[in-house]
Automatic annotation (TrEMBL):
PANTHER family: SUMO-ACTIVATING ENZYME SUBUNIT 2, UBIQUITIN-ACTIVATING ENZYME E1. CDD domains: Uba2_SUMO. Pathway: Protein modification; protein sumoylation. Residues 5-433 form the THIF-type NAD/FAD binding fold domain. This is SUMO-activating enzyme subunit. It comes from Citrullus colocynthis. Keywords: ATP-binding, Metal-binding, Nucleotide-binding, Ubl conjugation pathway, Zinc. Residues 328-369 form the Ubiquitin-activating enzyme SCCH domain. Residues 442-534 form the Ubiquitin/SUMO-activating enzyme ubiquitin-like domain. Pfam families: ThiF, UAE_UbL, UBA_E1_SCCH. Gene3D superfamilies: Ubiquitin activating enzymes (Uba3). Chain: B, domain 2 (1.10.10.520), Ubiquitin-activating enzyme E1, inactive adenylation domain, subdomain 1 (3.50.50.80), Ubiquitin-like 2 activating enzyme e1b. Chain: B, domain 3 (3.10.290.20). Residues 559-574 have a biased composition (Polar residues). Belongs to the ubiquitin-activating E1 family.
């Protein structure tokens, strides 16, 4: 039961929820049932069939409609007096500026990606509105509180980068099925159906100057006078046959590894073109891309079945045919999407054929889709628990009850008899460039890097700015905005193509650049240092930003890497290799907190050998929570008083 004070805090609050998905549906219901009177919801998505199992405010008839609006309508049916305002929009839109955020007492995130979370964090800091942040992955979840000046902001700790693999493992020496999946989706799929101008490492290992022109780069182009069947077989033979033979010729590679076997289509598939079973016309008649399917075309139904090498080969050729005949317009623009049936079929087949070649067990379409999309199946109960915890923290925030703020982690296995692990939040990180004034430093070749490189690789990609403004002293070098006149736009575009040291106000070693995002009201200084050379493998951007860093999930893996999924991906938690460890710590975004520091509100009874080492990754490419060995350094960090 809420106290009178709590009730009045709740009643007087104006709350912004961002995200009306798995956590969001639970959260909206809990807020309304807890007595909140004025709730605003932003969500950019429409409802999909796959949401219905857990996003319980939605029904089949709502598929295709705005999540924010349908969630609002559903809750109004049982709490008609609550004021709920919905926005079917991206929270990064300009309309949601600092003034918009300022009207709220607290912001509650139920998002699924790092980019949007970082953006909301910045707006909350700029508007000085507390943020309660959350995430779930399967049984695992977390709720954290961020209050400007009192606790860490969401970006005080560097976030782990998505899991990545060295390029050579993917292109030449796969040893796990996931390596074959990454190869199939990030290299082969991208090469055949994606943007041709994108850099692609697919062919690096097979370029043999002595080889015939047949094996040159244009192997992946469909010739005008050839059938798609012929083209599909040509690609098949190149990537599964010829490339493997080239790789085999390098004896050293295989000294301590099992040799792969080349696979040619003529040995697997009969000579005549792949026969369709008559369902192809059904594909033809459908209008939605999700219904165009190589499996349907070939009369294969069970996604849980592991296909034979022949079936994989038939799917491979059939999927290419369908892309080039039924989805011609998409070819050249496609990015792998786990919800694109034909893309998943192609990637499964290609990964399986490669796996077979390297002696790696093949997988079903269902399993491949999970690996390719980094899917951990959502658990409705976890979302409900997390939503409840968000509301508990929101009420504390509304009462300004800073001593009792908690970050709470929902674990998969009990640790010292607890599944919910509350931890006191830490003070802001004094060297966080987002919530403190700490300058960053950038090593870059000022004689060869262009302003465009700096804008794309650092300001947008690393610093997450949407509307950047870059100044050198009083000189404005670059700016983005709707209200710029043509001359200014032309001037900035010209600057983008200039080398840093040749800009109207030259950027050289020792220059301090001031970078600002007008929407996020975030500004920071970057100290520039010239450096001639960069290691292509270790520093692929050709520049190094420090004072800010991503933590890699795979330790000791410093080479150029390829990732497994960065879109709606969720990374698989791994508990199976867990060590038994009595003195368990919680690692938050790569830094550790002793359980001894957990809230005294919870009885931490010591239970020897009770704790496994679950690794918790919440949605998409964000927070890492890991139970792991001790590290006393973190104990030196001051807790929030
Ligand atoms: N930039 C953004 N602006 C507004 N809403 C966003 C933004 N980014 C993500 N969201 C919303 O956050 C919600 C996250 O919910 P959830 O994690 O359950 O994802 P989902 O897309 O519903 O499910 P799944 O990814 O498992 O299919 C989604 O409804 C999504 O539309
Ligand atoms: Zn910070």
């Amino acid at each position: 039961m809420a106290s009178q004070q709590q009730l009045s805090a709740i009643k007087g609050a104006k709350v912004l929820m961002v995200g009306a998905g798995g956590i969001g549906c639970e959260l909206l219901k809990t807020l309304a049932l807890s007595g909140f009177q004025d709730i605003h919801i932003i969500d950019m998505d429409t409802i999909e069939v796959s949401n219905l199992n857990r996003q319980f405010l939605f029904r089949k008839s709502h598929v295709g409609l705005s999540k924010a609006k349908v969630a609002r309508d559903a809750v109004l049916r049982f709490r008609p007096n609550v004021s709920i305002t919905s926005y079917h929009a991206n929270v990064k839109n300009q309309e949601f500026n600092v003034d918009f955020f300022k009207q709220f007492s607290v912001v509650l995130n139920g998002l699924d990606n790092l980019d949007a979370r970082r953006h909301v964090n910045r707006l909350c800091l700029a508007a000085d509105v507390p943020l309660v942040e959350s995430g779930t992955t399967g049984f695992l979840g977390q709720v954290t509180v961020h209050v400007k000046g009192k606790t860490e902001c969401y970006e005080c700790q560097p976030k782990p980068a998505p899991k990545t693999y060295p390029v050579c493992t993917i292109t030449s020496t796969p040893s796990k099925f996931v390596h074959c999946i990454v190869w199939a989706k990030d290299l082969l799929f991208a090469k055949l159906f994606g943007d041709k101008n994108q850099e692609n490492d697919l062919n690096v290992r097979s370029s043999d100057p002595a080889s015939s022109s047949d094996h040159a780069e244009d192997i992946f182009e469909l010739n005008k006078d050839e059938t798609i069947e012929h083209y599909g077989r040509r690609v098949f033979d190149h990537v599964f046959g010829y490339n493997i033979e080239v790789a085999l010729s390098n004896e050293d590679t295989w000294k301590n590894r099992n040799k792969p076997r080349p696979i040619y289509s003529r040995d697997i598939l009969p000579d005549e073109p792949t026969k369709q079973n008559g369902n192809a016309d059904k594909n033809c008649a459908t209008d939605g891309q999700s219904l165009i399917s190589a499996m349907a075309s070939l009369g294969m139904k069970n996604p849980q079945e592991i296909w034979s090498l022949m079936e994989n080969s038939r799917i491979f050729i059939e999927a290419i045919k369908l892309f080039f005949t039924k989805r011609e317009k998409d070819v050249g623009n496609l990015a792998f999407d786990k919800d694109d049936q034909l893309a998943v079929e192609f990637v499964t087949a290609a990964a399986n054929i490669r796996a077979e070649s390297f002696g790696i067990p093949m997988h079903s379409l269902f399993e491949s889709k999970g690996i390719a999309g980094n899917i951990v199946h959502a658990v409705a109960t976890t979302n409900a628990i997390i939503a409840g915890l968000i509301v508990i923290e929101a009420i504390k925030v509304l009462q300004n009850d800073a001593n009792n703020y908690r970050m709470t982690y929902c674990l998969e296995h009990p640790s010292r008899k607890m599944l919910l692990m509350p931890v006191e939040p830490f003070e802001p990180n004094k060297s966080c460039y987002v919530c403190s004034e700490t300058p960053l430093s950038l090593e870059i070749n000022t004689h060869s890097a262009k302003l465009r490189d700096l804008v794309e690789k650092i300001v947008k990609a690393k610093l997450g700015m949407n509307f950047p403004l870059i100044m050198h002293g009083a000189a404005l070098l670059y700016e983005v905005g709707d209200d710029l006149d043509e001359d200014m736009v032309a001037n900035y575009n010209a600057n983008l193509e200039k080398v840093l040291s040749e800009l109207p106000s030259p950027v050289v070693s020792g220059t301090i650049l001031s970078v600002e995002d007008l929407q996020q009201e975030l500004s920071c200084n970057i100290n520039v240092k010239h450096r001639d050379e960069f290691d292509e493998e270790k520093e692929p951007d050709g520049m190094v930003l420090s004072g800010w860093q991503e933590t890699s999930l795979e330790k000791g893996d410093s080479s150029k890497t390829l990732g497994n999924g960065e879109s709606t991906s969720k990374t698989l938690p791994s508990t199976k290799d867990a060590d038994k460890n009595d003195d368990t710590d919680i690692v938050v975004s790569g830094r550790k907190r002793k359980l001894d520091e957990a809230s005294s509100a919870v009885d931490i009874s010591s239970e020897a050998n009770s704790s496994k080492k679950p690794e918790v990754l919440d949605d998409d490419d964000d927070d890492l929570v890991m139970l792991d060995d001790g590290d006393s350094a973190i104990n030196k960090k001051k807790r929030l008083q």
